[in-house]
Write a structure and sequence with these properties.
- The chain has 16 helices and 14 strands.
- It is α/β, with parallel strands linked by helices.
- The chain folds into 3 domains: 69 residues, Winged helix-like DNA-binding domain superfamily/Winged helix DNA-binding domain (Arc Repressor Mutant, subunit A), CATH 1.10.10.10; 114 residues, Aspartate Aminotransferase, domain 1; 235 residues, Aspartate Aminotransferase, domain 2 (3-Layer(aba) Sandwich).
- The chain has an 8-stranded mixed β-sheet with strand order 2-9-8-7-6-3-4-5, with helices on both faces. The chain has a 4-stranded antiparallel β-sheet with strand order 10-11-14-13, with helices on one face.
- Strand 10 and strand 11 form a beta hairpin.
- The protein is globular.
- It binds pyridoxal-5'-phosphate.
- Pyridoxal-5'-phosphate binds next to helix 7.
Amino acid sequence: MADEWSSSVDLCVELSHRGSLGRDVERAIRQAICDGRLVVNARLPSTRALAHDLGVARGTIAGAYAQLAAEGYITLRPGAVSEVIWVPPAAETPAAAEPGRAARWDLRPGSPDSSSFPRQAWVRTTRSVFQRLPPDAFGYGSSQGTIELRRALTSYLGRARGVLASPEGLMICSGFTQALRLICEVLRLSGARAVAMEDPCAPRYRELVASSGLRIAGVPCDGEGVQVAALKSLDVQAVIVTPAHQYPLGVTLSPARRNALTEWARQRDALIIEDDYDGEFRFDRRPVGSLQQMAADRVLYVGTASKTLAPALRLGWIALPAAIRPLAVGIREWLDRGNAALEQLVLADFINSGALDRHVRRMRVEYRGRRDYLARVLARDVPQAAVTGIAAGMHALVTLPGETQARAVLAAARRRGLLLHTIEEYWHEPDPAHPHAIVVGYGRPPANAFRSCISELAAVIAEACG
Ligand SMILES: Cc1ncc(COP(=O)(O)O)c(C=O)c1O
């Protein structure tokens, strides 16, 4: 007993002595986390030690920890020390929680569940790779990326995403963001002046393209994806598309449009930039392979590890048409001489051992379960809200009856500390005819907080639409 106490940690819990003791402990710890006094990874005392320190029953502390775990603030595993997992959100939030009020729930799109990163498998792979590395692996390598990763990806992408590539035709980059910057440079140096982008699309990439000096033309999307007929009337030399899962509408480019799009590129001598950001997470049984396989000489296929593994890896890949490869490789040589090689070697081994497939298959089941739960709860509790775009990925579009309700949802979300994105900023231009919707990223919350997060979302919508 003495050992357990002395090996535990101190925690300053200031009780208000109002309401039940369990609630009081819970509130004090939650407040400390929200204020930043208890930071992420901070260890909490064992329930026994804290109960002893506060002079209360152990069950009271266990109940408080269980509630905080259900809300996503701390971990709770039998026999293990509880730790803080809540990270106060960074400032990238258009619909932020009320000033001065910490966000408790985060349903912004764009991130997978970081708490599900396959840490053990990654550590095992890292150890095994480092034990085998020859000394020259620590020297300068190819600016196109390590041959090991390019070989592993050639095989993986051909099998899992239907990409037609060779190790020589692949370039490793630090995610879609860097790929797009590099591609804009390639386009400009090849004489391009204007690029078409889907409308709606991620505002971040619109700004990136604009900052590279290229003019942007918006192409509307409908239930079949990007409208190729509208593209034909534009004076552009390339188009950026998300064919497997339009971002953010969530629709899939129809077979007829896939044909029309590649035909357009051939006729106009134009390029297609295919952003395959979450193609692995398809939930129905009809796989949607890459567009690139239909026109490997016209399509720059870009994939990323940001959704399948973690954004923190900053690893992505481009399948380059042969004609533009020398220019792209040349730019890369002067830009940064390529990505960090050691992480690439770990990822190569991770793919070759089947660990990536196992992780993707596990997460597909997890995200499908979340998607089903989200759709079920919203259909039951707020039938006024229509959930669409959910055949793949980790975000859903939730369309609200009108502008008044959309504004009220944002206000209610702010009050309750729920971080949400509306679709408004994704359109190229505001238009009263646009549907009013929120883009719900259901991949981001840790599994133990997911249900509470969705209850909060349903409560926010119900309050706004009620
Ligand atoms: C539309 C879209 N494409 C690609 C990405 C991945 O970007 P990166 O690979 O730079 O992390 C994201 C991330 O949120 C995205 O929203």
